[in-house]
Input
Amino acid sequence: MTTRNVSKNVQKKIGKREELEKAKEEAKDASKSMKCPTCGGTDHASSSSKNCFERVKGKKEVFKEFTKTTDIKTSLINCCKHESVVSEIQKLVAHITQVVFAGSIFANYHYLGQVQNKEVPSEISQNLIYQLFSGLTGQRREASDELQACFRTFHESLPSGFDLNAYKGQGYSTIISSMAKQFETLVCENISSNYEARACRYLLGIFSKPNHELFCGTNLTVAQRKSIARYVFQKKTNAEDCKWPSSVDKNDEIKSLFERTLAFRSKFDVTGTRPPTVPNVHAIPHHYLKRTHEIQRETSEKQYIQENVPQQTATPG
Output
C-alpha cells in the first residue's frame, strides 16, 4: 500500500468523524429548542417524558404506589378494656334501639291515621320524626296539640302489658335526633324510589282481577297490560317521554279502559296537593302516602294473573 493510499483512508475516517460530531451538535441544538405541546416545557418533546409534569403514569408506576387498607371487625369488649365505658355504650345502644323501634311504630300510627281520616299527611321531616321519637321518651312539651292527641290515642291502643316508662329519656337526645334524620331519609327514599314500580304492579293486578271494575279480560297479554299500566302512570305524572305503547292497538275499548283508569286513580289524590309529577315524588313524598298505602295493601295479597296462550300444537281431527 502506498503512502498516498494511506493518506486518503485517513482523510476519509477524519471526514466521517467530523460529520458525526457535526450531527451530534445539531441534535444537541435541536433538543434545546424543543417544546412540549402538553405542558409547554422546553426540556422535553412530549408528555411521555418523565420531565413533563402533566405526564400520565403508566400501570406499573401506579401499581407501585398502590396502598391497601383493611378494616378489622372486633367486639366492643376486645377493643375497650374499661368496663364502665363498655357498660355505658351497651346501655346507650339498647336504649336507642328500643326508642327507634317504638318510635317507628308511633310514626306509622300517626301517618296512617292521617291517611285514613283523608287528611293531607304531615311533611316527612327530621323535626317531626324527632318529636315522634321524643314523645315516647316523655319529652312532649314542644309537640303540637295534634301530636299530643295522637300520642294519647296511641297510648290507649297499646296492650295493657306495654310499658312506655322503659323509653323515658336518659340524656341521649342528640343521638335520637341523628336517628330521626336517618329514619326520615330512609322513608323518603323508599317512597320515591319504589313508587313507579309499585304503581305499575298495582295497575297490572287490577287489570287482571275478574271482580274489579277495570278488569280488561284475557284478550290482552300480560306484557300489553304492563305497557298500558306504565302509560297510565306516565300520563298521570305528566312525563315528557309518555308515548302510547306500540304493542297495544289504540281502539275504543282500550281508550275507554285508559280513561276509566285515570278516573280511578284520581280518587286517591289528596285535596290540597299539587298535580303529581315525577320530580314531586322525590320533593314531596308525604303527598303520596295515601296512594302508597293503598298499593301496599293490595299488592301484599297473592294474586294469580292469567292470559290466553296460543295453542302450540295442532289438535287431532
